[in-house]
Amino acid sequence: MVPRQRRVTNADIGDGILNAKAWPSELRVSKDKKTLTVRFTEGGEFRLPAEFLRVLSPSAEVQGHSPDQKQTVHGKRKVEIMQVEPVGNYAVKIVFDDMHYTGIYSWDYLMKLGREQDDLWNGYLAELEEKGLTRDR
Length: 137
Hints:
137 residues, alpha+beta, three-stranded antiparallel beta sheet, 5 helices
């Protein structure tokens, strides 16, 4: 069962007392549900596409329990973000319209995705090509 949707607020994010290196000041899902914008107090604002977040989900389903278990997720070009839910004061869980919801995106992981977006995306596209997979199927 997917919990009811609610907006993540600054109160959910907390006051920055945890040891996380990255600390978001704003999380916003676009109206078309295709992009999560994350703004950090340290500076930096990243527009992270839903497809990018889905295929790089930190879940065990995608990442496995060791590097050799990592899965290449394909066919997610049209995936949308249904919900963003706070997880304590350190992360969010993103629920996608393909019903994937097990990834916990820490603030540090979101910062890494933002900073390394181009390299991670290009690596993902190369992996798809190498395995004969596509973003559509």
